[in-house]
Design a protein that fits this description.
- The structure holds two protein chains of two kinds.
- By secondary structure, chain A is mainly α.
- Chain A has one domain (10-330): ABC transporter involved in vitamin B12 uptake, BtuC, CATH 1.10.3470.
- Helices cover 77% and strands 0% of the residues of chain A.
- Chain A has helices at residues 3-23, 31-43, 52-86, 99-113, 117-141, 146-171, 177-186, 194-214, 218-221, 225-230, 235-257, 263-275, 279-303, 311-330.
- The two termini of chain A are 25 Å apart.
- The relative contact order of chain A is 0.16.
- By secondary structure, chain B is of the alpha/beta class.
- Chain B folds into two domains: 7-231, Rossmann fold; 242-275, no CATH class.
- Helices cover 32% and strands 27% of the residues of chain B.
- A six-stranded mixed β-sheet of chain B has the order 6-7-8-3-9-10, with helices on both faces. A four-stranded antiparallel β-sheet of chain B has the order 2-1-4-5, covered by helices on one side. Chain B has a two-stranded antiparallel ribbon with strand order 11-12.
- In chain B, a hairpin with a 2-residue loop joins strand 1 and strand 2.
- The longest helix of chain B has 16 residues, at 175-190.
- The chains are: A mainly alpha, B alpha/beta.
């Protein structure tokens, strides 16, 4: 694909996927009705649609859900792209430094301690950050290859918070709390509302934009710390900033939708196959492709059967075979 | 040496954990020279290069660049002056040669940046100066080791640096590429660029360098004109290898292992061993 045509093409695809998804659901709505409603609501053109249910269905339920899918897909993909470049490793995903394990533990803790949904979301976010701080702290305790130490710190921190999560599951009330925890960990967008979307979506959007703005450093960072520093990059500062942004974005995806697996791992690979490895193009493209991917997978998960398939399970079930197939091609250029 | 040295290494010592790797190193390099660091594995050449790049902080002593302590210069400012040409390596991602050369523009950019048209044309010029324009769109992982090394030099040019620090630039290259690399180094040094490079080959030093600094166990054991310091005795001391350094008429010297010299066996008087 020519570089100049990548972004317009992907943006059109994203818009088409979003509109298509608005029409999908138990209550099918044709594109004409959707357009009529949007023209009236936002531009005052035409007449008010007679169907009040349609309005609330589209604007209060489907639209927030689609926007959340967009932002979550883009956040995870952008974080994954940045992490794969920074840690020079194809098997790296945004969960590398423990953010997902920490956020899961936080959410479970919230469900056991409190009935308040806001408390669950806050605890999830806070423990996502704490888990990454633990990883970074472990890496800082030792001298040496910082990137490698961070990865090891992430393994330790993830394992630690996964164990804590097991404790919570063990002590949770098996009739109400445990099923809620398990279902939460499977991930899903059914609980997304406007308030969560605003609270989580705006920082995510800022994070996506910041990561794209910093993507010029990623090529050089993937050549190794010493080389990057000799190229005039304050390596430690840029890396910690990118880790912080990625952690924030990823923790917020858990706050919105629980565990959404594999997106941050496979979307960067797919994008690299389509647009090449240059991170200045790869990072923004992966945001768009991640958004499209999650919208479509969410469509599948909510329309395929009468009951919703948890989104995290759908992304894994679709992502893993796909990854196995593209693995051979994705390995090109990796040693 | 000129009156105004470009780069001064003053009493530099460095150690990882307990072990001393560099011990009181002193020398100064003037502009436009090619200086070779020579010594066996583990003598501290690579560490010294990293200290001169500001990647490692010396335990004692300091590095002055045009009279300014590099520890006080920002990473960016230093990168605009001194470029690092690492040992031949493979990138993990198949970036194009152009992408790699463009990285050299980072020290000239603001914190959030995009490359401009001007950056592109500077990178293109650098690529053309090294006669690798035909490689611009090729993947850096798919070109030969020699071409990769030329790409890294092009990046250093795009960086705008005047001093190039090279860590064993010729290692891993085939014979032809080694010679082409040395050619480029000579050509650029005539244009005023300064080179400090480490090497495993005394002959490379004899061919292209103005000066050799011989290191062993973290100290400088000899420093001077290549033809004066690279001798049978010094090579025996550095590498524990018996080598005759022979003169070739009107030309730099060559090293020949003594076992191969037969009749021309070293007799203590270098000047007689003329081919």
């Amino acid at each position: 694909m020519r570089r100049s045509s990548i972004f317009p093409a992907l943006s059109c695809l994203l818009a088409a996927a979003a509109v298509f998804s608005l029409t999908l659901g138990q209550y099918p709505t044709p594109v004409r009705d959707i357009l009529g409603l949007f023209l009236f609501r936002f531009f005052g053109i035409g007449t008010t649609p007679d169907n009040q249910i349609l309005g609330s269905l589209l604007l209060d339920i489907r639209l927030p859900r689609i926007l959340a899918a967009c932002l979550i897909g883009a956040s995870l993909s952008v974080s994954g792209s940045a992490f794969q470049a920074m840690f020079v490793n194809p098997l790296v995903s945004p969960g590398l430094l423990g953010v997902l394990a920490g956020a899961s533990f936080g959410a479970a803790l919230g469900m056991v301690l409190s009935k308040s949904w806001v408390a669950v979301q806050c605890l999830s976010f806070v423990f996502g950050l704490v888990a990454v701080l633990v990883s970074v702290g472990i890496a800082k305790m030792h001298k040496g290859n910082t990137a490698l130490l961070l990865v090891l710190g992430g393994v330790i921190s993830s394992a630690f918070f996964t164990s804590l999560l097991s404790i919570i599951k063990y002590v949770a009330d098996p009739y109400n709390q445990l099923p809620a925890i398990v279902q939460w960990l499977m991930g899903g967008l059914s609980l997304v509302d406007k308030r969560t979307l605003l609270a989580a979506g705006i920082p995510q959007l800022v994070g996506i934009v910041l990561t794209i703005l910093l993507s010029g450093y990623l090529n050089a960072l993937s050549m190794g710390d010493e080389e990057a520093q000799a190229l005039g990059i304050p390596v430690e500062r840029v890396r910690l900033l990118l880790i912080f942004i990625a952690t924030l974005m990823s923790a917020l995806t858990v706050v919105q939708a629980g565990m959404i697996g594999w997106v941050g791992l496979i979307i960067p690979h797919i994008t690299r196959m389509l647009v090449g490895p240059d991170n200045k193009v790869l990072v923004p493209s992966s945001a768009l492709i991640g958004a499209i991917y999650l919208i479509l997978v969410d469509d599948v998960s909510r329309t395929l059967f009468n009951v919703e398939i948890p989104l995290g399970i759908a992304t894994s079930l679709i992502g893993i075979p796909f990854f196995a197939v593209i693995l051979r091609k994705a390995r090109q250029g990796w040693d | 040496m000129g009156l105004d040295p470009l780069l001064q290494v003053e009493g530099v010592s460095f150690g990882y954990t307990r072990e001393t790797v560099l011990n009181d190193i002193n020398f100064a390099v003037s502009e436009g020279k090619i200086v070779t660091l020579l010594g066996p594995n583990g003598c501290g050449k690579s560490t010294l290069i990293k200290v001169m790049l500001g990647l490692l902080c010396p335990a004692k002593g300091r590095i002055l660049y045009r009279g300014e302590n590099i520890a006080r210069m920002s990473t960016k400012a230093l990168a605009r002056e001194i470029a690092y040409v690492p040992q031949m390596h493979r990138s993990a991602f198949p970036y194009t040669v152009m992408d790699v050369v463009l990285m050299g523009r980072i020290p000239h950019k603001t914190f959030f940046f995009r490359y401009s048209k001007a950056d592109m044309s500077i990178a293109n010029d650098a690529i053309e100066r090294l006669s690798i324009a035909h490689l611009g769109k090729r993947a850096y992982t798919e070109i030969s080791g020699g071409e990769r090394q030329l790409t890294l030099i092009a990046r250093a040019l795009a960086q705008g640096a005047k001093t190039f620090l090279m860590d064993e630039p010729a290692s891993g290259l085939d014979y032809g590429n080694q010679l082409r690399l040395l050619d480029q180094i000579i050509r650029l040094s005539r244009e005023g660029y300064t080179f400090i490079k480490s090497t495993h080959s005394p002959e490379h030093a004899l061919w292209v360098a103005d000066r050799a600094i011989l290191m062993r166990k973290g100290t400088v054991v000899a420093d001077g004109k290549c033809s004066e310091v690279i001798t049978t005795e010094s090579l025996l001391y550095l590498y524990n290898a018996r080598v005759n350094v022979l003169n070739v008429k009107n030309f730099p010297r060559v090293c020949v292992p003594q076992t191969l010299c037969g009749n021309a066996e070293y007799n203590g008087d270098r000047q007689r061993n003329v081919i």
